[in-house]
Specification:
Elements lengths: L1 E2 L10 E6 L11 E16 L7 H10 L5 E10 L5 H19 L6 E8 L6 H13 L5 H10 L8 E9 L2 E10 L12 E6 L5 H11 L18 E6 L14 H23 L7 E9 L2 H12 L2 H8 L5 H9 L11 E6 L2 E7 L2 E2 L4 H8 L3 E7 L5 E8 L3 H8 L4
Parallel strand pairs: 4-5, 8-9, 10-14
Antiparallel strand pairs: 1-6, 2-3, 3-4, 3-9, 6-7, 7-8, 10-15, 11-12, 11-14, 12-13
Helix pairs in contact: 1-2, 2-3, 5-6, 7-9
Length: 408
């Protein structure tokens, strides 16, 4: 596998564009489009929040069916959530406008929105934006990067990745972009993720792969514990790599595909966690030696979502008691008298706690380790062979500032 340039436009046949539709933001792009030259199979995983945005309902009907997809239209600024019948009607009008501009069927157009909940979309601006997007589609690194920028809300950086790998003698490419900074606690933030690939694979296996993968990638990310109404992760595969179609889940080709998909989703997940609203550090929690995979996941996520732990990471304070506390209230069983806790970063690694007590570590060394941009807490349980990793960020003053006036 090689990391390459090109983002979502790296795979064969995928184009992108961005435009400024003035939906909420001024002096910046706020709409993006992804387009496949040939119809692509799709798969998606969406928010588990009972309150689901209109585009989530629209997309799920399509990705859960056998209908092939040509385009995805994305807007930032307004979420089109809690908008009832009018919101669904605007979905239909948006898809119809894209279908007319691109000469495709409206049921082959997916939609995604992110931003303020409860506001109706300015459909005239959306339609004008779609017209502009349709006319400016390109297959280029620049177009991919502009699309990634256009879907940002409180994100401070755009998030994209692309790779290439071999499948049955053919070069396959995969690209991805996502947005997410606040209201991040996926169970599938305000998180939107899009992956394109030119691999030839069955719809059944594409859906199986993405739904299994998300459990250990996007679902292990938490910035603030709030699961959005709009969380969507969508993957399109158009088959233009011309590899022998993957139809057997036990084949080596499918295993290779899953490994590479996991690299893309893990990379994007860490980008979201590291760009949490107001964050100064990526906080990674690794739980090793658990009895089951689910136990490891639950323990890791309990620590990464602890507000007190996140605040300690912001203060570069090795307050290990907060981590033990978060492990203890997770609901999972473990033996605090037979475990170890380490902090590590590019600045070093230090044992903090072992077999029920502090080891009397050097506070200055621990502070130096916790002062890095990426910090890891490593929990060793000695109870089994399973491990899991969760990603989050520190909790800072700026998180409150950003969310105190988000609507304005």
């Amino acid at each position: 596998m090689n990391i390459i340039n090109g983002g979502i436009c790296a795979p064969k046949g995928f184009l992108a564009s961005a435009t400024a539709a003035n939906i909420k933001y001024k002096n910046r792009t706020d709409m993006a489009m992804i387009f496949s030259k040939v119809p692509a199979i799709s798969a998606g995983t969406y928010t588990t929040n009972l309150v689901k945005a209109a585009p989530v309902l629209w997309d799920r009907n399509i990705t859960d069916s056998e209908v092939e997809v040509n385009a995805i239209v994305i807007n930032s600024g307004i979420a089109n959530a809690c908008t009832k019948d009018e919101g669904m009607e605007y979905c239909k009008q948006s898809a119809n406008k894209a279908a007319m501009e691109l000469l495709v069927d409206e049921n082959s157009v997916l939609l995604a929105s992110t931003g303020v909940i409860g506001m109706q979309l300015p459909i005239d601006r959306i339609c004008n934006g779609i017209e502009s997007l349709s006319k400016s589609l390109e297959q280029s690194e620049r177009a991919a990067n502009e699309a990634a920028k256009a879907i940002m809300t409180t994100d401070t950086v755009s998030k994209e990745v692309a790779i290439e790998f071999e499948i049955s003698g053919k070069t396959v490419k995969m690209g991805g972009m996502c947005k997410g900074s606040g209201m991040i606690h996926p169970n599938m933030c305000t998180m939107l993720g899009f992956i394109t690939t030119d691999i030839n694979i069955s719809k059944e296996l594409l859906l199986k792969a993405i739904r299994e993968d998300v459990v250990d990638t996007f679902n292990m990310v938490s910035v603030d514990g709030d699961t959005s109404t709009n969380d969507s992760l969508i993957i399109l595969a158009n088959g233009l790599a011309e590899n022998v179609k993957i139809v057997d889940e036990n084949s080596d080709e499918y295993k290779v595909f899953k490994i590479n998909l996991n690299f893309v989703t893990t990379t994007l997940s860490k980008m979201i966690a590291g760009d949490g609203e107001g964050a100064t550090a990526l906080f990674e929690v690794v739980v090793d030696g658990a009895k089951t995979k689910e136990t490891a996941r639950t323990l890791a996520k309990s620590v990464v979502t602890s507000s007190l732990t996140k605040a300690a990471i912001f203060g570069h304070d090795a307050n290990w008691g907060r981590i033990l506390c978060a492990l203890g209230y997770s609901g999972e069983k473990f033996d605090p008298d037979n475990m170890e806790l380490y902090f590590e970063s590019e600045n070093g690694k230090i044992l903090i706690y072992k077999d029920g007590v502090s080891v009397g570590f050097d506070e200055d060394v621990a502070t130096k380790i916790l002062s890095a941009k990426e910090v890891r807490a490593l929990v060793k349980l000695h109870m089994g062979e399973f491990s899991a990793t969760a990603w989050g960020c520190d909790l800072t003053f700026d998180y409150v500032k950003i969310n105190a006036d988000y609507r304005s």
